Amino acid sequence: MRKRELKNMEWWVLIIALILCAIGLVALFSATQENNYDSFYKQLIWLVISLIIMIFFITINYESIVKVSPIFYIAFLVLLVAVLFTNPINGATSWFDIGFFSFQPSEFAKVFVILFLTFIISKIQAKRKENINKISRLLLILIAIGIPIILIVKEPDYGTAAAFIIAFIMMLFTAGIDKKYIIATILLVVVAVPLLYNFVLPEHAKQRIDVFLNPELDPRGAGYNILQSKLAIGAGELTGMGVLKGNQTQLGFLYPKTTDFIFSVISEEMGFVISCTIIILYVVLITKSLYIAKTAKDNTGSLIASGIAGIFLFHMLENIGMVMGLLPITGVPLLFVSYGGSSLITSFICIGLLLNISGKRQKTIFVK
User: Fold this and answer.
1) What's the pTM value of the predicted model, to 2 decimals?
2) Over the stretch 49-89, which tens digit does the pLDDT of each residue have?
3) CA torsion, points 323, 199, 166, 276, in degrees to nearest 10?
4) Long-range contacts: 220-228, Cβ < 8 Å, 24+?
């Protein structure tokens, strides 16, 4: 790797990711003391593995990775089909349990579907002078994103499916989607949402939405987690109750406190200051990702970076929104902060790609 590339890299995306990981590790240390810090030590191991994998994605030219993305796309479609035949965990068939670790293919699929969509859109733009707005071309792109989304919804994992959709939308904006399609999509969503709620969504999904709108409907059942989360967030006040001292965290009222509700643990024990710091760090990370998309040397880099920005944006808004009662609970982790090997490795693959793309740009390129 040349010195110029190292100098051009947007190192702040890595620094922010590591700061978020550090905050997450402190929260995991506190949340797992009754289990001899098992998840904390595992997360440390996953962090080391993630950083090694990240280095690989920094050193390999991102254009070369995009070229082989159809192979990975097909491989992950096979895995997404295969995982449907595994034993359910918390009501969802999303995991391969391989003894010493669990593997969630939908997490890794987020990155490789973005790379495959980049492959398709780049091919269309190269042949058709940057025009993707014909129905036949859009239909091809929609099929490519639709197949994994359908398989993930089948698990069911609505949160991860939504992350795919947000990343896809960001990529379409970058590719130059016509406004008429945006307007038509908005109208379609307005019509489809009530139909989906009444005739498609299973009862447990409807219950989550109903409880989101009014948690007091079932305070000891479906509304329990969100009510405990709000209590934890409110109890933290400005500076928190102290690490290892949160009532909701240490008495076991938050569940699952190492993954979905890790932000509640942080808010209770570290307070408003650290909670706001996390939000600010995420905003900067997303902004930096979009800046990398704008200053990339080619459309391929721009598409990848904008898709990654979409993933970061969705996970921040959904996880923090759901634990505060602003959005329905979907089981979406807070990237870099929540416990989970699949999530952490995927997140650092994204960081590696962002550093890769920013390193290849020219210093003279700026967007007005």
Assistant:
1) 0.90
2) 999 999 999 999 999 999 999 999 999 999 999 999 888 87
3) -10
4) 225/254, 225/255, 225/260, 225/261, 225/329, 226/322, 226/323, 226/325, 226/329, 228/253, 228/254, 228/255, 228/264
Query: Which residue has tokens 């989970």?
Result: 340
Joined tokens for residue 323: 């634990």
Counting every residue, how long is the chain?
368
Rounded-to-integer distance, Cα 82 and Cα 75, Å? 11
Greatest Cα-to-Cα distance within the chain, rounded to the nearest angstrom: 61
- Name beta bridge partners: 103: 96
Q: How far is CA 180 from CA 144, 172, 185, in A?
A: 21, 13, 9
The closest alpha carbon to 61, from 298, 294, 293, 291, belongs to: 298
Can you read off the two tokens belonging to residue 43?
């997360």
Segments in the chain below pLDDT 70 = 1, 99-100, 128-130, 204-205, 208, 216-219, 221-222, 362-368
Give the integer Cα–Cα distance in Å for 112 and 319.
Answer: 22
pLDDT digits (tens, 9 = 90+) for 40-53: 999 999 999 999 99
